[in-house]
């Protein structure tokens, strides 16, 4: 959860950009950006600490994560005047064919088969 969820009664879609940052962090580093032994400890880390970025993390990955995990919702990547365009233009997404994605022309890398 984004820091403002703990401190404000009203929040905006900036919390969704934060969630994207958490997902990208976890997918790349295979751990959560904030962890702890209790919900209270995790909440305090979310509110007051910065995630750990290994020195070997490429600059373009650090760039997107620091932007999306900005504790200030007004300055968070995606939440400024530029909106989603600011996220889409980051080097992290270099080569992404956004229009083809919008038109659903990009095939997934794999499709999971399952039965209910």
UniProtKB/TrEMBL annotation:
Pfam families named in the record:
Pkinase
Q: Which residues form the Protein kinase domain?
A: 1-93
Keyword Methyltransferase assigned = no
MF-aspect GO terms: ATP binding; protein serine/threonine kinase activity
Look up keyword ATP-binding and say if it applies: yes
Keywords of the record: ATP-binding, Kinase, Nucleotide-binding, Serine/threonine-protein kinase, Transferase
Domain of life of the organism in this record? Eukaryota
Kindly provide the name given to this protein in its UniProt entry: RAC-alpha serine/threonine-protein kinase-like
Species, as recorded: Xenopus tropicalis (Western clawed frog)
Name of encoding gene:
akt1l
């Amino acid at each position: 959860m984004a820091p403002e969820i703990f401190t404000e009664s009203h929040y905006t879609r900036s919390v969704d950009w934060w969630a994207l940052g958490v997902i990208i962090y976890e997918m790349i580093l295979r751990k959560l950006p904030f962890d702890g032994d209790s919900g209270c400890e995790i909440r305090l880390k979310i509110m007051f600490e910065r995630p750990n970025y290994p020195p070997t993390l490429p600059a373009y990955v650090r760039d997107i994560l620091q932007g999306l995990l900005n504790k200030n919702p007004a300055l968070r990547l995606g939440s400024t005047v530029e909106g989603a365009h600011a996220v889409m233009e980051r080097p992290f997404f270099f080569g992404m064919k956004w229009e083809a994605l919008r038109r659903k022309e990009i095939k997934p890398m794999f499709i999971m088969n399952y039965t209910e």
